[in-house]
Amino acid sequence: MADEIFALLRERLQLLGESFQVHCCWKAGSQLAVEQRLSENVAKHECAFCHRRKALPGMEKICMEHDRKTLTAALAAHEDYFEARCPAGATELLVPFRRNGLCLGAVLCGPYRKPGDPADADLPELNSQRVASLAAIIRQILSDTIDDAYAGSAARPEDPRIARAVEFMRKNFQRKITAAEVAARVFISRSRLLHLFPQQCGITYAGYLNRLRIEEACRLLRRNELPLDAIAFQLGYRTQSHFTANFKKATGKSPRAWRNSHLG
Known about the structure:
By secondary structure, this protein is α+β, with helices and mostly antiparallel strands. The protein has helices at residues 2-20, 40-43, 48-54, 59-77, 128-149, 160-172, 179-185, 190-201, 205-221, 228-234, 240-251, 255-262; strands at residues 24-28, 33-34, 82-85, 91-99, 102-112.
């Protein structure tokens, strides 16, 4: 079933790209990780412009840092779609998908140029109206597919060891658990667990553990009588500030702001 869902997601991303003449890819989670269950042409930037620019000395590393830091920080600050400039000077569109306050990931479209930018044979031109149309169509045709792909916050792992690891994490995430402890529970090494987990679940071990805690935090925040420091302690965070930083990175809002927007 998971293979069919990701095959459908791949087909729809390719269709969007062909329709708007701009590359569309999917990056998972608030850290915009490469989705290992998608083929490379829709899991990474794959276009002539990117290949040409990344061939320049040091540019590929700069682009990776841009995705990892600049775009993830921007993603946390935006509820709706937004545009960003890439290090090579082109524009890209990000359409985030959030469910219950959590960021499942974002569709990245581009690179492209805006009206008035220098012409480039490898870059299509998209005006504001076309960008808005693309963002609306992405939401319309991908929402159900992405919901199906990430139902339960992680794929159902086929490897029984990783399935047992996931089950153990779901039952024990409210206390401090380490990758070493989880690995020992399922009789594999820590390094093997960390290697297999994203392949099987589409998210890193640390990312999934944090997601479990943030999901529970959302549930607890709806209980208005619980103070933030009590929630942080209950979920195994070292400090309230550590909890707040992780929560904002995942949802785009501070715990207090999220609570205020979901009460009443």
